[in-house]
Amino acid sequence: MNPPSSRNALYYLIELIPYFCFYLFLLASLLLTSLSHSTHREKMSCTEPTLNTPLLSSFPNKTDYSNQDPEPLTKPKTRHQSNNILISIPHSPNSQTPYKCLATIAGNAGPISSLTLCGEFLFSASSTKDITVWQHPDLRQFAKFGHGEGSVKALVAMGNRVFSAHQDGKVRVWKVSSRSENAFRLVASLPTTRDYLGRCLKQSNYVQTRRNHRRLWIEHGDSISCLAVHGDLVYSGSWDKTLKVWQMSNLKCLESIRAHDDAINALTVYDGILYTASADGKIKAWGKRNVMKNSHCLLNTLVAQNNMSWNAVATCLNTGIVYAAGSDGHVAAWQCELEKEKKVWTLVCDVKAHDMAVLSLCVVSDLVFSGSGDKSIGVWKREMGGGLGKLGLLRGHEGPVRCLQASWYRAGRGYVVYSGGLDRSLRVWWVPQEDILGDK
User: By its UniProt entry, which PROSITE patterns does this protein fall under (predicted)?
Assistant: First the structure.
C-alpha cells in the first residue's frame, strides 16, 4: 500500500493531465497554423504574383490624368444595375453653375460608409460586407470582394494590400493578386490566430472590458470605426475607446492605448504624428517615444468646442494644419509649429460650416470639402494661416454625406469629388479650380 504522500502526489499528477492535454493541443494548433500560413504564402508566391503600382498607390491624391483629352460635359447618369458609366470631364466651367454632378450610382446594397482613392481606383464600402472597386474617374466597376460579420466601417490601402475595418471588431487584410476573377484575396484577419495563441496563455495579456468580460489586449471589444497607415504601421480606432498599433510586415499587434473617454471616430497621420478624433470632444496628437521604438505617447490634446463630438479629421500637406469636423456643424483647424524644440498647436480656425453635424472631411491642395448631415457638401478655400473661405455647396444627396474623397484633374483644371451618403448613393462631382471661379 502506498504511503499517504505518494498517494497525494499521484492524485496531483492525475489532476494535471487535462492541463497537459490542453497545452499540447494549443502547441499543435500553433504549429499547424504556422505550417498552413507558410504553405499559403508559398502557393501565393508561386501561383499568384502580385500586381504593382499603379493599381495601388501610396499617394492617392497625386493621380495625374494630364494625358487625357477633355470632352464636353454630359448629363449626370444613374446606374441601377448596369456598371457602364462614362464620365466626361469639362474643359472649362463656362456656365452659371460651375459645380457639376457628373454621375450618380444609386441603389447600393446599403449606406456608403467609407471611400478611399488608391492610384487609378476608388474603393467604396457599405453597411453590407461588400467592398466595391471602381476605376476612376469613369466609374467602371473593376471588382467586388468582402468578408466578415457586420458592416465595413473603414478602408485604407498601402502597396499591394488593402485593410478593411469591420463592425465585428476585426481588421481584415486583402492582397492584390493577378487573377482577374478574384483580384483581392483575404490573407489575414487581425488579430491573427498566431498572435492570439502566442498570448492567450498568460493572464497578464487579458484586460477587463466595459461589459465586465475579459479579453486579450490585442482584441478590439467593439466596432472598429477608422484606420490609418503610416510607414510599416497600421492604426485602428474603435468604439471601445482604444487605439491599436499593428505592424504591417508581420501583422502583429504592437500596442494598445486607452486613448479616449468615448468612442474614437476618426484617425489621420501626418509627419509622424497621429491624430485621433473622439466623441468625448477631444482631438489628441500622438507621437513615438523615440525613432527606434513603435510605442507612442501623448503629445497634446486639442479642444475647441464643449459638449460635442469630433466626427472627422484631416491634415493638409506641407502646412502642418489639422482640420476637424464637429457634431455641432463647426469645422476647426490647428496649426502645428515647433517652438524651442517642442511642438505646439494653436487654434487658427473655428467656423460654423453647416446647420447640422459635419460627418466627413477631405483636404486636397488649396480646397477643403465638408460633408454634412444636412445632405450638402461644403466647398472651402484654404486661406493664409489656416482659415476657411466658403466657395459654395454641392447639393443632390437625399441623406447625410458620410464620406468624401477628391482628386486633382490636370487636364480639366479642377477637382473630381466623390461622395458617399446614407441614401445608398455614390456621387461624382466636378469642381473647377478656384481661380477660374473668380470671386464666387
Answer: WD_REPEATS_2 (PS50082)
401/341: higher pLDDT: 401
Do 56 and 40 lie in one domain? The reply is: no
Tens digit of each residue's pLDDT (9 = 90 or more) over 267-276: 999 989 999 9
Distance, in Å, from the CA atom of 362 to the CA atom of 61, rounded to the nearest integer, reads 11
Number of domains in the chain: 2
Residue 303 and residue 173 share a domain: yes
Sign of CA dihedral 298, 301, 307, 312: negative
| Cell of residue 255, nine digits | 500596442
CA–CA distance, 181 with 103 (Å, rounded to integer): 27
DSSP string, 243-259: EEEEETTT--EEEEEE-
- Give me the sign of the Cα torsion angle 50, 53, 57, 59: positive
CATH number at residue 407: 2.130.10.10
Same domain, 161 and 15: no
Same domain flag for 33 and 57: no
Give pTM, 2 decimals. 0.79
Give pLDDT tens digits for 46-98. 333 333 323 333 333 333 322 333 232 233 333 333 333 456 666 544 444 57
Pairing of strands 152-158, 140-146: unpaired
Name the residue with cell 466626427.
Answer: 311
Distances, alpha carbon 281 to alpha carbons 143, 366, 388, in Å: 38, 27, 21
Pairing state between β 367-372 and 414-421: unpaired
Please compute the mean of the pLDDT values over residues 263-269 and round it to a whole number.
Answer: 96
Residue 394, judged by CB atoms within 10 A of its CB (0-12, 13-18, 19+), counts as: buried
Shared domain for 39 and 147, answered yes or no, is: no
Beta-sheet pairing, 253-258 with 264-270: unpaired
Phi then psi for residue 285, to 5 deg, are -105, 130
H/E run at residue 24: helix 4-47
Q: Domain range holding 21?
A: 1-47
What single-letter DSSP state applies at residue 435? G
C-alpha atoms less than 13 angstroms from C-alpha of 135 in its C-beta half-sphere: 12
- Reference 133, options 75, 79, 176; nearest CA is 176
CA nearest neighbour of 244 among 273, 224, 270: 224
Closest CA to 396 of 101, 112, 99, 124: 101
